[in-house]
Design a protein that fits this description.
- The protein is of the alpha+beta class.
- Helices cover about 25% and strands about 35% of the residues.
- The protein has a single domain, classed as Immunoglobulin-like.
Length: about 325
């Protein structure tokens, strides 16, 4: 009886393996979809939804679409500063943080790159029946909460981390200007250039990142890429007043390459890195109000050592 049962099980397993094998053979998608494709000195990293799995498909995709191109400022002689602000539409004092960022932007201009991360209980949308605070500004994939948990701003929003210095320490708006001044005076360890190529018919952006190390260091670094949208009109609690047409600024919309980005190793003076991310812009987002943001940070301590931003589309 035992021998007969074992034989039956073996036959069933063989049939399962046969059909699984057939499914793999009949799979219409390229084997390498979602993996990186090296081409002409650049590493292309493509979202799986584009179903691009080899160089031929990559070239066809690029050649068969029209692309509008925009470039970031030059930061080869200047350390640019990333300001990640934790906020939420139900946070009554968070608009004070936004107003401070707008003021700082007039001072530091392109050197300052602000990102508003909606996270925590202040960012939880209300039931649609409430008629307000119903939009979910948190990033798909749970990245907003990952950053909230890692940098631990507490509940006294608005709080922000300036280039994640001092192990990503967070502070209130009154401290931001002094911290920015302190960090921006340091020499950059790298130049980081972004060239965005946007296809309106595909709702896709090719974020080309070219990095050149300007010094040698022993630390290991990661490259992080965001998409952010400006001027989103929606509800916001502002110092006790429910405002229906509040202008939400610099909202983090997408984390392109995972919560903690891509490892790029150590800084070796004169060496260059060229990476292009091909990703989708959600149909509900306004591409003409969006930027791609790229930055490099230390694996040990999270400090952002260089950053840059470029508009995605300006019709």
């Amino acid at each position: 009886m035992r021998t007969k049962n074992l034989l039956s099980i073996s036959v069933l397993l063989a049939l399962q393996l046969f059909f699984l094998g057939c499914e793999k053979v009949d799979d219409p998608y390229p084997v390498n979809v979602g993996q990186s494709i090296p081409y002409q000195g650049t590493e292309y990293i493509i979202d799986t939804e584009f179903e691009i799995g080899n160089t031929t498909q990559l070239i066809t995709f690029i050649d068969n679409n029209n692309w509008e191109s925009l470039t970031s400022p030059n930061n080869s002689n200047q350390r640019f500063i990333l300001l990640e602000e934790f906020t939420g539409q139900k946070c009554t004092f968070c608009p004070d943080g936004t107003r401070e960022i707008i003021r700082l932007d007039t001072i530091f201009k392109e050197v300052l790159i602000p990102v508003a991360i909606h996270a925590g209980t202040f960012a939880e949308p209300q039931d649609p029946s409430s008629g307000k605070y119903t939009t979910d500004f948190r990033v798909d994939g749970g990245h907003s909460e990952d950053y909230l948990n890692q940098f631990n701003p507490g509940k006294a929003f608005p709080r922000g981390t300036v280039s994640r210095f001092d192990n990503g320490s967070v502070s209130g708006p009154a401290a931001w200007e002094g911290q920015i001044n302190s960090l921006k005076s340091e020499s950059p360890i790298a130049s980081l250039t972004i060239n965005n190529h946007y296809s309106p018919n595909q709702n896709a952006v090719r974020v080309q990142i070219d990095l050149e190390w300007l010094t040698n260091t022993t630390e290991e670094y990661n490259l992080q890429v965001y998409l952010a949208e400006d001027h989103i009109i929606d509800w916001q609690l502002d110092n006790g007043v429910a405002v229906p047409n509040y202008d939400h600024r610099h909202v983090l919309r997408k984390v392109v390459n995972g919560t903690w980005g891509k490892s790029i190793g150590q800084a070796i003076q004169g060496e260059t890195i060229s990476i292009q991310y091909i990703t989708r812009v959600d149909a509900d987002w306004k591409a003409n109000d969006m930027e791609s943001i790229a930055f490099i940070y230390k694996n040990d301590g999270y400090e952002v050592m260089q950053a840059n931003a470029a508009y995605i589309y300006k019709p």
